[in-house]
Design goal:
7-stranded mixed beta sheet; 4-stranded antiparallel beta sheet; Alpha-Beta Plaits; Ribosomal Protein S5, domain 2; 11 strands; 11 helices; alpha+beta; 2 domains
């Protein structure tokens, strides 16, 4: 038996659309039982233990059969490697909410690849597993930080995913502001325009450069400008009532800034460590029509791990 722990992730970080993401201290944990483990302790193929807050969990279903994304990923790995699927069972304990912009599907893909690599003793390197996960998931901005921890910036040339990992300062604190309604990635992408102006491209390029520089140098005062975006957030705000208010008010409350996490609808607020932003955010969202949960989080430094 072994356990795989995978962190939640927050992609885009404002202007870094499909290019950067952070690993967060919120985890899914999967216990894996081999044939030997199951001889005297039979278990269902997939045993689910969901620990997501009930108020933001409504309507979320995790399949406990072959439609489960971890199971599907294990099968894809074995097919790609030309090896038989080993006999196993898993107990999946989730705290990452689904369809909230926190990398729940990426966490399943990462877990599936790590489990398959371990069960089959294939010895595939983490970099090669990352490339495999990009093929499956389609977007590297969630899977790369889920594997590596910290902040990861990267690009693919169609063959390989090249990336740089950045250690995020402990002086930063993150608050995930999560609503009780879902937003699918497909719906969030459907509202984006097919083309952008040169001015919009320059606007985002300058913010991406500033954001990466601020994270690497510790000049966090630049983040309020660096997390601005004209590529996806202005178009997605119509799908997320309260988004603009949370982002603007966060700065008033003493945060460096805020951005739409992934495709949303979660808003990620970035603040100096020790601030009282959480209490003010909770007071603000208590006036909204929907319930919003405010969770303080750090940046996970290790990424996905196998625990013996």
């Amino acid at each position: 038996m072994f356990t795989v722990r995978v962190p939640a992730t927050s992609a885009n970080i404002g202007p870094c659309f499909d290019t950067a993401g952070l690993a967060l201290t919120l985890y899914n944990q999967i216990e894996v039982f081999t044939k030997k483990d199951l001889e005297n302790n039979p278990r269902p193929l997939i045993d689910l233990n969901c620990q997501i807050d009930e108020r933001i969990r409504a309507g979320q279903e995790i399949p406990d059969d072959e439609r489960n994304l971890i199971w599907e990923t294990i099968n894809l790995f074995c097919e790609k490697m030309g090896v038989p699927v080993p006999f196993f069972a898993i107990r999946q304990t989730d705290t990452i909410p689904l369809t909230r912009g926190l990398g729940s599907s990426a966490a399943c893909v990462v877990a599936g690849l790590m489990i398959a690599n371990e069960l089959t003793k294939s010895g595939i390197s983490k970099d090669d597993l990352i490339n495999m996960s990009v093929e499956i998931e389609g977007h590297p901005d969630n899977v790369a930080p889920a594997f590596l921890g910290g902040m990861v910036v990267g690009a693919t040339d169609g063959k390989r995913f090249e990336h740089v990992r950045i250690d995020v300062s402990d002086e930063l604190e993150f608050f995930a502001v999560i609503p009780d309604f879902p937003l699918s990635t497909a719906d969030a992408r459907a509202v984006l325009p097919r083309a952008y102006t040169k001015e919009q491209a320059v606007f985002n390029c300058s913010r991406v450069a500033l954001l990466v520089s601020a994270m690497m140098s510790g000049n966090f005062g630049a983040l309020s400008v660096a997390m601005q975006d004209e590529i996806h957030q202005p178009y997605r705000k119509i799908l997320i009532p309260g988004m603009e208010t949370i982002i603007h008010k966060s700065v008033e409350y003493g945060a460096y800034g805020a951005y739409l996490s992934g495709a949303g609808p979660t808003i990620m607020v970035v603040a100096p460590k020790g601030s009282n932003v959480k209490e003010k955010l909770e007071e603000l969202v208590s006036t909204f029509d929907h319930f919003w949960l405010v969770i303080p989080l750090g940046v996970d430094k290790h990424g996905a791990e196998i625990i013996r």
